[in-house]
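Narrative progress, year one. The postdoctoral researcher (J.K.) led the effort to move from monomer predictions toward full complexes, under supervision of the PI. The following entry was the first complex the group processed end to end, covering 1542 residues in total.
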Amino acid sequence: MANLANAGPEVYDDRAARLFLWATLLWGIVGMSVGALAALQLAFWPANGGISWLTFGRIRPIHTDAMVFAFAGNAVFAGMYYSLQRLCKKRLFSDFLTSLHFWGWQAIIAATAVTLALGMTQGKEYAEMEWPIDLAIAVIWVVMCINVFGTIAKRRVEHLYVAIWFYIASIITIAVLHIVNNLAIPVGAFKSYSIYSGVQDALVQWWYGHNAVGFLLTTPFLGIMYYFLPKAVDKPVYSYRLSILHFWALIFVYIWAGPHHLLYTSLPEWAQSLGMVFSLVLIAPSWGGMINGLLTMRGAWHKVREEPVLKFYVLALTFYGMATLEGPLLSIKSLNLLSHYTDWTIAHVHGGALGWLGGMVFGMAYWLAPKLWNTELYSKKLANMHFWIATIGLLLYVSSMWTAGITQGLMWMATTEEGLLKYPNFLETVLALIPLYWVRMIGGTMYLAGSVLCVYNIYKTAKAGQPVDIEVDTSNDRHVAPRTFHERLEGKAFPLTALALVAVLIGGIVEFVPAFLLETKVPTVTATTPYTPLELQGRDIYIREGCYNCHSQMVRTHHKEELRYGPHSKDYEFLYDFNFQWGSKRTGPDLHRVGKKYPDLWHYRHMLDPRLTSPGSIMPSYPWLFDSKVDTSLLAAKLNGLTKLGVPYKDSVLQDPVAAYNEQADVIVATLAAEGITATNDLEIIAMIAYLQKLGTERAPDEASH
Amino acid sequence: MVMHKLSPKTCRHCDTPLLPTDLSGFCCRGCETAHGMITSLGLGEYYKLERKSEGLFGKNTNFDCSLFDSEEFQQQFVIKESSDKHQASLYLSDLNCYACVWVCEKAIEKLYPGTKILLNLAQGSARLTYNPSQVQLSAIAKVLADLGHEPSPNPQSEKPSNLPTIRVAVAFFCLMNIMLLATADYLSYDLDGSMFFHPFRFISMVLAAVIVFFSGFSFFKNSWTALKNRNIDVDIPIALAILLAFGLSSYNTIKLSGDIYFDSIAAIVFLLLSGRALQKIAYDRCVRSFLMEKSQEVTFCRVIDEATGDISLLPNHQVKANTTLRLLPGDLSLSRSIVLNGQSEISLEFINGETEWIDVSEQDEIPSGALVGSKPMTVVTQESFNDSYLNYLQGTADELMINKGQLLTLSDKMSRTLVIGILSISTLIFLSFLTTDPTEGLQRAIATLLIACPCAFGLGFPLTIARAFQLGIKDSVIFKNQKALENLAKVKNIFFDKTGTLTSAVPKLKAGYLTEDFKHLETLKGLCQQLVGYSQHHVIKGLAQWSDKSLREIKVISNFTEVFGQGVSFDCDGEPYRIGKSSFCGIDSDKFNIVVTKRGEILAGFTYQEALQNGSEAAIAKLKTMGLSLGVLSGDKNDRVDLLSKELALDTDQSNTILGDLSPEDKARLIAESSASAAMVGNGINDSIALAKAHVSVAVKHANALAQKSADICLKDESLLSLVKAIQIARECRKAIIRAFSFALAFNISGVILGASGALSPVVAAVLMPFSSLTVILIASRWRPQ
Amino acid sequence: MIVIFMLIGISFILGAGALVSFIWAAKSGQFDDLERPAEEILFDDFFGRS
């Protein structure tokens, strides 16, 4: 893969940084606009204009995936490709792989946006893309690995600066996380079922969820901080020894802290406590990074007054410290009881995202643009204005969500003296939040406005400047021709080990895990039965519409929760839930005990227009469920796939699934007809009703009385 | 509008402020040469970089690098990988910022493209890969010296092994994993029924095996060597506790029932290893600067081959009788020898401390250890170096240092008692339960071993010592080892050498005779100020101190030459001047020690007066208040010694012994006769035996290499006040050790009683143990001398 | 809850991988000089123009 343009002296390939910087900023605007729209819809529900691909359930995953993979992802690649070359004193390994990586990644983002809008989703947070896109991500990630490890292997500087270690750790761990969490059996072009189910799926998902945040939003940005902050302040990092120490500590401890997303759920209690303890241990390494960053600013604080770059870095580091303290505190069980499923989690996420990520990305952009186009920043005043707008927007967002979160937490658990629920009707708790949703929407839009200013500023800078090739300092090249066998091996060892690790993992997991999981599928408890074809179809519509974005399906093991929803959820109830739907947010009430709570008619009218049955509700209406027909052609493939995963379907169902489907559908059509509703049995609403009526109805009899 | 104060003109190379009237723009010739080289190689950016460098004061101008080409000299630090590829590892002086690294690497790369050089900023060293046929090592050494970073051999050519760091990392990895799997036990979830109970235990067992036998291997090795030569070592109880606890836990794991202590074993190993790693880092940083200077000691002499007459280099100890040597000004004559040809002066300053010069010419005899004066000479040795007086001084110093090493330090004694106590108690407990319930007995014995954990001495003492080393570096005092620290704390009386220790090498000059013409006097003072930039000779420095710092207009000085031991001659405004000994300046009367002449006609005459080392009065006064009796032992004449002691008000207290005219042996004898805890502060070779003999020895800043070698403590700062600080640090360190030890003793005794009585289960013991280490660490690392 | 073994297994492999790379780093001299890299990164702008 010789470099294409290697005539003349070796120059840095800054085209990569320029392209990824543009991608970061543009996708940032797109992601934030979708976020603003979603926020608006919470405050003012008709804002989706009745269009199916604009409802909250579908655009929220687009917002989260766009911000994580498009905004933060592209920023990581921009920062990494710019700094890696300077730290290795070597042009990138291959221009072809760089462009393949860039265009591939943008194609993946576009595909994700389109498929999620159409409802083709796996229903697992931050991993919603369907299996073809997952494969594409794996391929592009391998392309990047070759490019990065190749550059490192050919480096001219012996020492790997700490930023490079952060990049390496992020790349390898994300590869492993992505593969393990997205193992699924494809049953259709854009439909698959995860090989794990219920509690196991939850644990793997949140092991991935926490570490994706850890290794895509923290460690690479710490790497970026350790390069771009000293450069912006023109002072060495405060203590290089501390940065090495806190890197290795972070790497060894971070990977254990997944289960703190599942406190008080039906996960075994010792696993929950394990997650809590190790999250608390995480404070030390995270704060090591923050302290090292803030102290690097020693002697340059006076410059923060005029320099927008330094303002953003200070914002980033302070919010990094706050978020990495708030996280571990939220993972303490007693506090988690109040904060779980509430908007406090949203405040924590956005404190970290808008503060730490936004701060680092915009700081890096304002510092990098003049360098990439060899000119001055178009307007420092505009950048400072962006900073103030963004900071105020951020504070509005986070404070409103803190208030909303605590209000929800307290109202849900509030009881009168006699021990009854003070707010039995869940809707009361939602309506109390509407003003806060407006404040959050305003804060988010201000942050978006700031980002638009940034894009304008960078655009004018780029137009004014002219990119110039910067020569690589090829002197003092450590890379003397490798003489001993060991040195030749070392040159190739790095890429080889990385790829070997990935290959072994894929091979090992895909074969042994399904077999390993299957033999435990012999139902020890007979209470739960597999989803019938009709219920399965309803469940897939539930996943398609992204209902988990507002509803949870997990009644927690706490008496006040049981007071509101009924007996707490047991792990065996989710035995056949491939792609578990426990959810992580309750804008709407928990649905795990909704089965047979309301008549079919109630669901029929509620899904048509929620205001009919619960006046004031902010839930969008789903009119398209009443006219589009269920496509039963995929039914056979779905049932075969689930049988492969060990679900014990009876042969009669497997031979003629459509018959079983129609038989159950006719029952529902009959009950609706009795109420004067004419509906055919192939409508999507029928399947939806069947699924909703089954939720939580199969608890083992002995405990049912509780 | 902010008015920027007009910053005074600074040296264009090293930014030291210059007299506003200075035209040359350089503070000294050294900076001038460095600046010249940098600009000639087009590395001008160097001056735009942010750099921390001080004046070179001509250090690099007279750097002799011919030595670097000789085979023997290269032997200690050059690896000959192949005929066209040699690897040399060097120490570089004053490497204190990346700018210096950048300029050295760039310069070498531009001048000798084939050569690879990699500088290590942390260790101040450089690794050089060059092709000997293309470039001479001495040429590279010259370039580095010109840039202000004089190279010297770095014997550790192979890198120190990083096995200890790897062991600590493996220990951390195993500890985190074991604790992860044990969290369920901590939070008292009974996993007994679930399918995770036994698999987790087996994984923990495997991890514990890794940490005990890989990371903890050093404990077993130390205890094995200690047992082999039958003395008690701190690591024995540690190794025993770990092995026993691991054995019992593995037995319980395999037996599928009973308690396991894998996490407490892992915690002990990790805490102890990291404690020792911290001490090593502090110790290395402290001794590294000392190692650099020690390796610059030249141990070679130039031998003339009668037949061909060319000069070759020979290590000192290979010099036999009647070999002809070539002595250059500033060399030491190795053994007693006769001058063959050439005529010069010699001084016995290093032998008896007087600084007079004695003229020698052909057939005169030169004693061993004489310093050669102004002109080079060829001599024939009468005895081999091995039985020369100089070697005798060196030999006895080394031998005394070695047997001083055997004495146990305070912390070793304390830990021995603690170790014996713990071992006997735990064996007692085990035996008492042998008959009734052996596993319970074993359980309690392990609990006692664990709770009486060696954290106090395993961790507390090393950290206290490391803290003392660090405080020492901050106050520019180098403690060469733990014994120096502890002995200094117990010292009762201190003996000082006079010349060079109490008195400053730069003499105080009293103007005996001055021409009346006032104008001459002004120009003379201006001249003295300017000369300091050209020569480091202590006479010139004395003159500079004499002429107060008032401003004068600057004279142009040309063809400045310095004759070693005699004086300097130069032209100023076209007039030839000479400053130096009266014989050198052509004046016959020797009324004055130093004369200044213009065109042979005397302008001024000065007499010597011994100036006190700055800070000595304050230091002596402070030492008296610290309850120490002081004494002066000098080779100088008695009257001078009495004069000095009067000045320092030492003679008031009768117990001080003030003696002059002492030979090195007398000094050593006097110290041996004095009470046990005596300290000797000195600088010359003549003090080396006394220094080695003394309970604790201190070498001052400009002490001779041999004295520094045989001293326990080296002061890096001119003033003696750093000696006072050293004593304060040593005394506070001793108190900190006693505090740590008493806390550990109290903690252990209560632990042992609880352990023995069975009220303390090993798990609780394991949990208490980290708290005891934390408190010990806090006590050990937070103390500060008043 | 078999998946816990799988998760701990994978995390253990990742941890062991990190340990192996730490040992490779220590052996290949990444920790020999911890003062130079911090200042060296500030100098890469010089070479573009020198």
